[in-house]
Amino acid sequence: MLLDDVKRNKFDNGLTLLTLEMHHAPIATVWAWFRVGSRNEMPGITGISHWVEHMLFKGGKEFGKGEIFNQVAANGGWNNGFTGPDYTAYFETLPSAKLDLGLRIERDRMVEAIVDPDEVVSERTVIISEREGAENYPRFLLGEAVESAAFTCHPYRWSVIGWKADLEAITREDLYNYYRKHYAPDNAILVVVGDINTKEVVERVHELYGNIAHKSQVDEVRSREPKQLGERRVLVKGPGKVHHMSMACHLPEYGHQDWPAISVLNGVLSGVIGLSFSSGYYGHKTSRLYGALVEKKLASNAAAFAREGVDPYLENIGVVLLPGVDPAVVESAITDEINKVRDKTVGDEELTKIKNLFRASLNYSFDGPTAAAMPVGMFERMRKFEDIRTFYDSIQEVTADDVKRVAETYLDEDNRTFGLYVPTGLGDKPVIDEGGGEMVISARGYIPMARLADAGEGGKALMPPVEKKKTANGIFVQASENMSSETVAFRFTFKSGSAYEGDLPAGVASITSSAMVRGTKTKTFQQIFEKVDSLGASLDEGTGMNTISFYGQCLATDFKAMADLAADVIRNPIFADDQVDLVKGQRLTQLKMEENNTHAVAFRELHHEFFEENHPYHRHGNGYIETVEAMKAGDLREFHRRRIRPERMLVTVVGGLEAGNVFGIVEDNFGDWQGEGDAPTEPDLTGGNVAGVQSKEVNVPGKTQCDIAIAFKGVPRLDEGYEALSQAINVYGQLGLMGRIGKAVRDEAGMAYYSVAWNSNSIGDYMWQIMAGVNPKNADKAKKIILAEVEKMRDELITEDEDKMLKDYLTGSFPLMFETMGRAAGALENPAIFGLPDDYYEKYIETARSVTREDIREAAKKYFDPENYTIVIAGPVEQIVKE
User: Fold this and answer.
1) Domain boundaries, the chain
2) Which run of H or of E encompasses 697?
3) Global pTM?
4) Are 825 and 491 contacting, i.e. CB atoms less than 8 angstroms apart?
5) What class is the 2-209 domain?
6) Which of 561, 282, 608 is nearest to 433 (CA)?
7) pLDDT for residue 278
8) Distance between CA 684 and CA 647 in Å, rounded?
9) How many Cβ atoms are within 10 Å of 375's Cβ, its own excluded?
10) Strand pairing report for 869-875 and 693-699
């Protein structure tokens, strides 16, 4: 187990250094954890821990404003930061040869931050924008209200983002003094993981940090929450069409002897959550809450989380109700499940399943340096990293009586706070249309997920070995061996996403993939996932614009069993009416939630305005309420017949299994499979965009933030102009902290928490997009700044510094694509999906560096067209101030 190789060093000034060598890829990550979070705040300065985190990206003695993101990007890495109730953490993941950059950044952050008064002014708007963006989500509003009621005196009662009134009042002196009190070596943990030499790291850390004499002055958190003496109930009303429900019960502090049993209890109720970025959610679909609420068609989602804290925290149960379901019925169903675990011991089979899932999730949590560093640092902050081992060993010792005892102790009605979000409607119904592309808005910036597979450095020597084969019936199979691992990541993918629905109802592609796992000719949904859980594996499905995928992780020795299961799901789904109705109910809830989401409304309405009505990209990939309500099981069967076929399939397996075994297992399961009937014709994905400037405002009442969405014509992935356009977009809205528009809208104008642009991989003539979240009073100003930057890209060459930074990022980040097995599997299938040459990755550096500044400007002149674009603004449009 990798945990056995973690080394601890404690320096004279109190700094703790933890190192772990992982040599499977030339990658290293540096994490700095500080023992400060919203728990350390007080009324009047709530949210200050998170605000300080923002300011520590603004510059210090060595790294000036913007240089942290720029230098990390220029060296092929990525970085981030986040704040919780008990900690603040930062990290840089880089090619291992650039490790020293991360060490220097964290030293500068620890003791040399400036907290410039002018930056405080601009960042205040950004912080408030982040708060207002969160307020657009009913789950945030309900969660904040429930925790404020559950805690009467402890600082856990306010959210990490803080109260808006405090954010408006906090001063520069508040921020700087708070920083100096809490940021020092004796209040910090440094974690370095990856392709490193521990001795050299220890010496370098001593050189950089050993002479820091500054000491923290952390005030003791003396508040102790009194015992709750009866149930508390909270009602929150707001815009929307879907009820949300929450139950919170007080738990003991992390490290209490009951925590292993509490964790098993949470697993019984809701499944097992991994420890890190690369971890999944295991056993959720066979958990008790899922069965009682989702399977019984009361809720679209139900989950429980046991939240550990330095001080006693909460067990939270969250539920999204299906439209039309009486909240009293759902509350009663939750209470019934709680009473069952309080009144009767868990059976041996169920208990063993949960223990096995914990064991498997621990292995998956250490898939790559970034993933491994997270739990090591987190546990060290909470108490000590060695607890990971002892905690998971203790899980195996938990008895059924232990689970019953902690359920009786903590899931007591008098220890409970109940919350209900009651939707008040939306007023004017917004139009919803298709999204296309995936984005992640992180605490510090935007990560365009599609670009991870396109970024690269190093060359052939850094490529994992890949063997490829095509079966007689047309299935493309590739296997990448990593025999140092005991696990594998797998993907069974079809070139058959939402753009391939044709004359079938909108949304049928994604509903088909969801319904495929809900029963086959030989197995029910429950039997499928009981098998998955018994192997400590995961199996998920997802549909995009271009593809449908069934993917997961398992032990290498269990891949045959998982492939058998996947083959049954793929080849033999039955689409039973009751299961199709269940999936439809979940989708209808999602669509109604989207009507209350300014981001979703703007992004999806963009497709309606940008593409002609008969174009495949015009329609919403999730469907519409009317198309989903009318959809029949026969529609799913027909889509499956047309588009889930062997000649459209590719299989990718990465990990500890020999390629020959992979090919044999795939052949055994799919070699005799033949598609039914003639293969359908391919959709026409060319053209289809509406000419001229299209502008639309969509009112989503009751919100505090608008989302701006802008689209320009893009090109197919195989187009010779794709690389130059992608590099232009990268400079415009990605590089460093969201590129030029991030600098102009967020950093300089202080108008938005995020302002980003990205280019999506597509088979046809798709679009490239810009999005920003702003207060309505700033929407018109932000739009003008964004469009002004479009003109600059057309009129001027990017600077030599920008070009160097861009090329260094694109080439230097190549190893990060293969950091985890799941990420590597996704990257390896991209060339096959889009018809790229087999040596695409080997030649990536050459291709990326061959694009000149002049090529980028020409791409901008062609595709940053001020005469042809679409803009949609969604939110409280009546509050928009026109400039």
Assistant:
1) 2-209, 233-423, 440-454+685-879, 460-670
2) strand 693-699
3) 0.89
4) yes
5) alpha beta
6) 608
7) 63
8) 19
9) 21
10) parallel
Show Cβ contacts of residue 20 under 8 Å, excluding neighbours closer than 6 positions.
Answer: 2, 5, 6, 7, 191, 192, 193, 194, 369, 372, 373, 376
Length of the chain: 883
The 3-state DSSP class for residue 758 equals strand
**Across 185-298, where does the E strand assignment appear?**
188-194, 232-238, 244-250, 272-273, 281-282
DSSP state of 221: -
CA distance 510 to 624: 12
Strand partners of residue 786: none
Instruction: Measure the CA angle with vertex 146, ends 141 and 147; round to 5°.
Output: 105
Residues of the chain with pLDDT below 50 are 427-461
Do 814 and 76 form a contact (C-beta atoms < 8 A)? yes
Q: In sequence order, what are the residues at sequence separation of 6 or more whose Cβ sits closer than 8 angstroms to the Cβ of residue 693?
A: 866, 867, 868, 869, 870, 871
**Do 283 and 354 contact (CB within 8 A), yes or no?**
yes
Give me the residue label for tokens 């989380």. 305
What is the C-alpha to C-alpha distance for residues 78 and 105, in angstroms, rounded to an integer? 13
> b/e string for 638-676 if b means 16 or more Cβ within 10 A?
bbbebbbbbebbbbbbbbbbebeebbebbbebbeebebe
Q: Which of 752, 746, 758, 744 is nearest to 705 (CA)?
A: 752
Helical H runs in 716-799? 722-733, 735-741, 779-795
- Maximum Cα–Cα distance for the chain, whole Å? 76
Q: What is the 3-state secondary structure (H, E, C) of 443-462?
A: CCCEECHHHHCCCCCCCHHH
- Cα R_g (the chain), whole angstroms: 26
Is domain 440-454+685-879 annotated with CATH 3.40.1190.20? Answer: no
Q: Tell how strand 548-555 and strand 540-543 pair up.
A: antiparallel
User: For residue 552, what are the β-bridge partners?
Assistant: 490
Which tokens hold the place of 478?
């590739």
Sequence-distant (≥ 6) Cβ neighbours of residue 600 within 8 angstroms: 432, 435, 594
Cα–Cα distance for residue pair 507/622, rounded to 1 Å? 5
| Token reading at 798 | 């990017």
CA–CA distance, 431 with 184 (Å, rounded to integer): 51
User: Matching CATH topology for 233-423 and 460-670?
Assistant: yes
What are the phi and psi torsion angles at 627 (to 5°)?
-75, -35
232 bridge partner residues: 417
Q: What is the pLDDT of residue 483?
A: 84
Triad 555, 558, 564: Cα angle to 5°: 140
The count of other CB atoms within 10 Å of the CB of residue 380 is 22
**Dihedral sign from CA coordinates of 603, 605, 606, 611:** positive
Strand arrangement, sheet containing 869-875? 693-699, 869-875, 706-713, 767-774, 752-759
The DSSP symbol for 835 reads: T
Task: Give Cα 479 to chain centroid, integer Å.
Answer: 26
Select from 552, 560, 534 the least CA-distant residue to 359. 534
DSSP 598-667: HHHHHHHHHHHHHB-TTSTTTS-TT--HHHHHH--HHHHHHHHHHHS-GGGEEEEEEESS-HHHHHHHHH
Superfamily of domain 233-423: Metalloenzyme, LuxS/M16 peptidase-like (3.30.830.10)
Residue 790, CB-side half-sphere exposure with 13 Å CA sphere: 22
User: Which H or E element spans position 490?
Assistant: strand 487-494
- State the DSSP code for 292: I
The pLDDT of residue 3 is: 81
Task: Please identify, in words, the CATH class of the domain defined by 460-670.
Answer: alpha beta
Q: How far apart are CA 134 and CA 600, in angstroms?
A: 14
Q: DSSP letter string over 45-77?
A: STTHHHHHHHHTTS-BSSS-TTHHHHHHHHTT-
Q: Which residues pair with 88 in a beta bridge?
A: 34, 83
Distance CA 650, CA 265 (A): 39
* CA 749/CA 743 separation, integer angstroms: 8
- Token reading at 65: 């404003």
